[in-house]
Amino acid sequence: MFRTIRRRLFKLLLWFAAASVLLVILFRWVPTPGSMVMVERKIESWIDGKPIDIKRDWVSWDELPDDLKIAVIAAEDQKFAEHWGFDIPAIRKAMAHNERGGSIRGASTLSQQVAKNLFLWSGRNWVRKGLEVWFTGLIELFWPKQRILEVYLNSVEWGNGIFGADAAARHHFGVPAARLSRQQSALLAAVLPNPRQWSPSRPSGYVATRAGWIRRQMNQLGGGGYLQQL
């Protein structure tokens, strides 16, 4: 009986591995239709009885402004062009910080965020973390850095029901993503740690200060020239 169970589990794992590889390869070229975060938000709205209108329009790499690309890298993952999905020094620092207690500090790269936003559920258990490692590895193996950033900017949450750069630009600033200014790009990047509570169009003092720091980091990274490394 145990051999049968092991055999069936092994087959199930093989099917899962094959399906996930094919899905990641498909999304290398095909725009992602949505994300698991969007599904979660819909389910939450049904449970709470508060309808939510999901807004999201895919925008190609060439239509996304360089200022927004570099602002997000400056804010979230300054070693994006260098690592293979995981920033090990940042992970070690976060673990040391969290062991001391107090606020929880994360160290997720943009690649990890794409993996969990697209394919996984919210949470911090080891099963989800293991799957995050698996999907991050696949994304880094099969997608170029440009594609990772393109999918991130088209999938990340920027408010209640607001997903992706174009929906965020129109909702918060009344312009398409291609017309975002440098300041608007920095403000959008500044709210990423808490996009459902912070507003880029009505920034608090903290968000405005963080946006200023992001603009300085954009300059230090080399501005649009940094993107050539991708």
TrEMBL record:
Residues 54-218 form the Glycosyl transferase family domain. Peptidoglycan polymerase that catalyzes glycan chain elongation from lipid-linked precursors. Its EC number is 2.4.99.28. Pathway: Cell wall biogenesis; peptidoglycan biosynthesis. Keywords: Cell inner membrane, Cell membrane, Cell shape, Cell wall biogenesis/degradation, Glycosyltransferase, Membrane, Peptidoglycan synthesis, Transferase, Transmembrane, Transmembrane helix. It holds the Pfam family Transgly. The chain crosses the membrane at residues 12-30. This is Biosynthetic peptidoglycan transglycosylase. It catalyses: [GlcNAc-(1->4)-Mur2Ac(oyl-L-Ala-gamma-D-Glu-L-Lys-D-Ala-D-Ala)](n)-di-trans,octa-cis-undecaprenyl diphosphate + beta-D-GlcNAc-(1->4)-Mur2Ac(oyl-L-Ala-gamma-D-Glu-L-Lys-D-Ala-D-Ala)-di-trans,octa-cis-undecaprenyl diphosphate = [GlcNAc-(1->4)-Mur2Ac(oyl-L-Ala-gamma-D-Glu-L-Lys-D-Ala-D-Ala)](n+1)-di-trans,octa-cis-undecaprenyl diphosphate + di-trans,octa-cis-undecaprenyl diphosphate + H(+). The gene is mtgA. Belongs to the glycosyltransferase 51 family. GO terms for molecular function: glycosyltransferase activity.
